[in-house]
């Protein structure tokens, strides 16, 4: 094979740095949806509208009614390593917001056409910035809050674009991200449309109602509420009875401090708790939220922030396992006879 070209070490241009980072942050359209929804929630929004076109590849436009971005801050919103959420290492160790890396919008803007329109409560009108942090901030119109309009994902990175799946598949991933986030925030109204058609609309509601809406009646009719605390750990939500179990693991929602996570420790703890009541080839359905002091969990494990590391993962495992097992044991004793084993 030909020897690779070796050049002198040189600083990469800003755009290329962001495109490299985008490989991790902006894996596919659904990752954009996730980042934009997290930003909308961090901004204190109570109503969020998600409009998708062609599976999100053509367009992802998310409008919120949150606190907005002041015009002089718009270029910073699109700059790398610029964030309003942390300012120091101690903030990083106590992250209470969904975002903190300050790179999502810059990454997205490096691989798509982005327009940010925003209006703060005290501004006479909205302002917008187009393209990148180098874009000109211009007056615009719109209500208080922010719209981030992302078009033509990967238009300038054709190699990346080739990895996209069909419109239907990309759409399904986007819709899944919206469901996950909508489940975690019943106090926020969401609406989702695809190619101009409203697909879903969730009004502000009780947690019980939101989860019934999203997981369906099978779950709503066969679930147990759980709410347990021990020391710094608080677990709450719903666990489905064996009758609400599924052939696939698509009814499992675990949140840590409001963030949807895929965590081996947690999945294992829940699975073990179901062991006595559920056949091995079935997957339990559950919506569980673990809240704990942010200093006890590291969310800065991967750019996508769906992985976490607990300071004391054994204690977390024990607590979750026992809480779920106790909850399931109560009813299996009343509703299903004695628990085998
Ligand atoms: P991060 O969320 O990690 O701070 P982002 O690149 O996602 O980084 O966003 C950069 C900054 O832009 C945020 O810190 C926030 O101040 C601002 N921002 C982004 N989206 C919104 C929004 N929807 N409403 C208000 N401010 C926003
Ligand atoms: Mg963010």
Fold blueprint:
Layout: H1 14-25, H2 29-42, E1 47-53, E2 59-64, H3 74-77, H4 89-92, H5 104-111, E3 113-119, E4 126-130, E5 138-140, E6 145-151, H6 158-161, H7 167-184, E7 189-194, E8 197-202, H8 207-215, H9 217-221, E9 223-230, E10 233-240, E11 252-256, E12 259-260, H10 264-274, E13 286-291, E14 297-298, E15 309-310, H11 313-335
Parallel strand pairs: 1-7, 11-13
Antiparallel strand pairs: 1-2, 2-6, 3-4, 3-6, 4-5, 7-8, 9-10, 10-13, 11-12, 14-15
Helix pairs in contact: 1-5, 2-7, 7-8, 10-11
Bound molecules: adenosine-5'-diphosphate (ADP) and magnesium ion (MG).
Magnesium ion (MG) is lined by residues 35, 38-39, 99, 104.
Description:
The chain is globular, with a radius of gyration of 22 Å. It starts with 13 loop residues before the first helix and ends in a 6-residue tail after the last helix. Helix content is 33%, strand content 23%. With 341 residues, it is of the alpha+beta class. The longest helix is centred in the last third of the chain and has 23 residues, at 313-335. It has eleven helices and 15 strands. The strands form three sheets. Strands 5-4-3-6-2-1-7-8 form an eight-stranded mixed sheet, with helices on one face. Strands 9-10-13-11-12 form a five-stranded mixed sheet, with helices on both faces. Helix 1 (14-25) packs across helix 5, helix 2 (29-42) packs parallel to helix 7 (167-184) and helix 7 runs antiparallel to helix 8. Bound molecules: adenosine-5'-diphosphate and magnesium ion. Residues 35, 39-40, 43, 64, 66-69, 77, 83-85, 99-106, 146 line the site of adenosine-5'-diphosphate (ADP).
């Amino acid at each position: 094979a030909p020897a690779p070209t070796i050049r002198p070490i040189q600083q990469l241009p800003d755009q290329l740095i962001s495109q490299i980072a985008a490989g991790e942050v902006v894996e596919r359209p659904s990752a954009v949806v996730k980042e934009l929804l997290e930003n909308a929630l961090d901004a204190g929004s109570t109503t969020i509208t998600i409009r998708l076109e062609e599976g999100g590849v053509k367009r992802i436009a998310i409008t919120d009614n949150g606190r907005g971005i002041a015009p002089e801050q718009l270029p910073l919103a699109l700059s790398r390593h610029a964030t309003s959420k942390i300012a120091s290492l101690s903030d990083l160790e106590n992250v209470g917001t969904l975002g903190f890396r300050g790179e999502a919008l810059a990454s997205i803007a490096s691989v798509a056409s982005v327009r940010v329109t925003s209006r703060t409560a005290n501004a006479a009108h909205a302002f917008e910035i187009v393209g990148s942090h180098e874009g000109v901030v211009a007056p615009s119109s719109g209500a208080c809050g922010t719209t981030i309009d992302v078009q033509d994902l990967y238009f300038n990175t054709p190699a990346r674009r080739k990895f996209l799946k069909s419109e239907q598949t990309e759409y399904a991933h986007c819709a899944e991200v919206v469901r996950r986030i909508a489940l975690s925030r019943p106090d926020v109204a969401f609406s989702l449309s695809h190619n101009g058609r409203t697909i879903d609309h969730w009004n502000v509601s009780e947690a019980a109602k939101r989860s019934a809406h999203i997981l369906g009646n099978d779950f709503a009719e066969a679930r147990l509420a759980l709410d347990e605390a021990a020391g710094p750990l608080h677990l709450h939500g719903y666990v489905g009875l064996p009758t609400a179990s599924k052939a696939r693991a698509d009814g499992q929602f675990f949140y840590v401090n409001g963030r949807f996570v895929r965590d081996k420790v947690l999945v294992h703890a829940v699975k073990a708790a179901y062991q006595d009541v559920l056949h091995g080839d079935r997957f339990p359905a559950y919506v569980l939220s673990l809240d704990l002091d942010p200093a006890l969990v590291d969310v800065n494990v991967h750019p996508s922030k769906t992985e976490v590391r607990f300071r004391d993962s054994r204690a977390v495992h024990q607590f979750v396992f026992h809480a779920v097992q106790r909850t399931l044991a109560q009813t299996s004793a009343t509703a299903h006879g004695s628990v085998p084993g």
